[in-house]
């Protein structure tokens, strides 16, 4: 068989029979189209965020630290060039408490995370609802 073959059922429904290679090519093309559609949706979402002034992207240095296994809070603090003591003093927190937040042993309140975000000069959304258990509410 070299191309598709159309078969009509007794009920009038038309069926198409095609070589396996053609079927595999169609499945691959459909998967690629779905992936392209998902990429376009992500692009549209990011473009809308930027247009609205909501740039939620983390700096590359922070992303790299996260990939190395550091917590989000620790990565942000180090990105800003602060020690735990520096940030603790600025945010009026104990250094041990900040250490517990970074290690995920404690969870900061919304108010505390807002205060930390302000002292780090970052968007509070980076710490609140970020999905990082070391910074959760």
Description:
The protein is mainly α and 137 residues long. It folds into two domains: 47 residues; 67 residues, 434 Repressor (Amino-terminal Domain), CATH 1.10.260. It contains six helices and two strands. It has a two-stranded antiparallel sheet with strand order 1-2. Helix 4 packs across helix 5. The longest helix is centred in the first third of the chain and has 32 residues. The chain starts with a strand and ends in a 17-residue tail after the last helix.
Features:
single chain; 137 residues; mainly alpha; 434 Repressor (Amino-terminal Domain); 2 domains; two-stranded antiparallel sheet; 2 strands; rod-shaped
Radius of gyration of CA atoms, rounded to a whole number: 26 Å
Instruction: State mean pLDDT (0 to 100 scale).
Output: 86
Integer count of domains: 2
Order of helices and strands: EEHHHHHH
Unreliable segments of 5+ consecutive residues? none
Give the spatial strand order of the biggest sheet. Answer: 1-2
Beta strands, count: 2
Helix run count? 6
- CATH homologous superfamily (4th level) name of the largest domain: lambda repressor-like DNA-binding domains
GO molecular function, one term: DNA binding
Domain HTH cro/C1-type: 73-127
Organism: Methylocella silvestris (strain DSM 15510 / CIP 108128 / LMG 27833 / NCIMB 13906 / BL2)
Pfam families: HTH_3 (PF01381)
């Amino acid at each position: 068989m070299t191309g598709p073959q159309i078969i009509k059922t007794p009920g009038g429904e038309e069926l198409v029979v095609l070589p396996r290679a053609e079927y595999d090519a169609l499945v691959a093309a459909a998967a690629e189209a779905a992936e392209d559609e998902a990429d376009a949706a992500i692009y549209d979402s990011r473009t809308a965020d930027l247009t609205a002034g909501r740039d939620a992207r983390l700096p590359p240095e922070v992303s790299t630290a996260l990939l190395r296994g550091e917590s989000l809070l620790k990565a942000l603090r180090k990105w800003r060039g602060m020690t735990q003591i520096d940030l603790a003093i600025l945010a009026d927190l104990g250094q041990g408490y900040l250490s517990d937040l970074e290690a995920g042993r404690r969870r900061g309140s919304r108010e505390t995370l807002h205060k930390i975000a302000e002292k780090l000069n970052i968007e509070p959304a980076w710490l609140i609802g970020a999905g990082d258990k070391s910074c959760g509410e």
